TrEMBL record:
Natural source organism: Crypturellus soui
Gene3D superfamilies according to UniProt: Nucleic acid-binding proteins (2.40.50.140)
Name assigned to this protein: RADX protein
Pfam family, one: RADX
Cleavable signal peptide: none
């Protein structure tokens, strides 16, 4: 009875110093961000964004500093939280926005929930899924899974989720974050098939905050990637290169990590599992490749155009 909602918070936050507890479900999770600088003396300069929702809509929630190592791995997509003693701030205008699985959901974009160790010290409680009641009105996690046969029709930068059987894993490569900077992004190319097309999904997977998954992607694993973005080559290249790349909110799952994830109820995931059951493992193993140099997107076929 003492709970408030995200919708009420948006209407009343300016007139209150203390807020009633919130009951929300995590719908999206960003990668962990390190914002330390040599001249700033912060013990744990970490930050992570989550999109959380209740029956009234969706809002950003920010986990700060030492709460990140304590809570980041426990707060999964689908987790239900009871939040007490949190702060409300105006939203940071330049942060990335994930594409919600439910396009009808209202987004409260002017403010965000701020979770800190002090001022005030936030209390976070995880509510086990088996005691979550339907009358709480919390939304289910929804996805935007596509098949490989649907990919060619999608526009550049379209957001989607995919599932496939891994047939190729490239070596880990590095790209500079800035032209003359010393920081690098780590990424690898992966091919995955889903039985709906002769062509595989070509996936550019950057190392998110899941090193235990990123390092163990290998052929014949069932791979799920969420919040991927379509990249189209819109130059004169006749092959119309199309691939998917990770976004700030992408999550990657491999065999051994799927149990209990919300996407296992999705129709396209179930269809993929049915297709896998019709395949002979030995036949697929013959087509798999690992490592080596993978030049992609391919350079033009003559040197002058290159």
């Amino acid at each position: 009875s003492r709970l408030t909602s995200l919708g009420q918070l948006e209407m009343t936050w300016r007139s209150k110093a203390h807020f009633q507890p919130l009951l929300v479900r995590v719908l999206h999770k960003s990668r962990l961000r390190y914002y330390g600088k040599p001249d700033k003396k912060l013990d744990m300069p970490y930050q992570a964004y989550f999109e959380v929702a209740d029956g009234s809509g969706m809002m950003s929630m920010v986990l700060w500093n030492s709460l990140c190592p304590e809570w980041y791995n426990s707060l999964k997509v689908g987790t239900v939280l009871l939040l007490e003693q949190y702060a409300i701030k105006t939203s940071y205008p330049f942060k990335t926005q994930p594409t919600p699985g439910d396009s009808q959901m209202k987004r409260f974009a002017t403010i965000e929930i701020s979770l800190n160790v002090r001022d005030p010290p936030t209390k976070i409680s995880i509510i086990p899924e088996d005691v979550v009641k339907p009358e709480w009105g919390l939304p289910e996690v929804k996805y935007r899974f596509i098949t490989r046969s649907e990919l060619d029709a999608l526009p550049n930068n379209h957001s989607c989720d995919v599932i496939g059987l891994v047939t190729f894993v490239g070596r880990a490569e590095r790209a500079r974050k800035r032209e003359h900077g010393e920081d690098f992004w780590l990424y690898r190319w992966v091919h995955a098939i889903d039985g709906t097309s002769d062509q595989p999904f070509i996936l550019e997977l950057f190392a998110t905050s899941q090193p235990d998954v990123f390092e163990h992607i290998h052929p014949m694993t069932y791979l799920v990637c969420t919040q991927m973005r379509v990249v189209r080559d819109i130059t004169e290249n006749p092959s119309r290169t199309i691939y998917l790349t990770t976004s700030n909110e992408s999550q990657i799952f491999i065999t051994g990590w799927h149990k209990g994830q919300p996407y296992i109820k999705d129709t396209k995931v179930k269809n993929f599992i049915q297709w896998i059951k019709t395949q002979r493992e030995a036949d697929q193993m013959k087509k798999t490749v690992i490592g080596g140099y993978y030049p992609f997107p391919r350079p033009p076929n003559n040197f002058l155009r290159y």
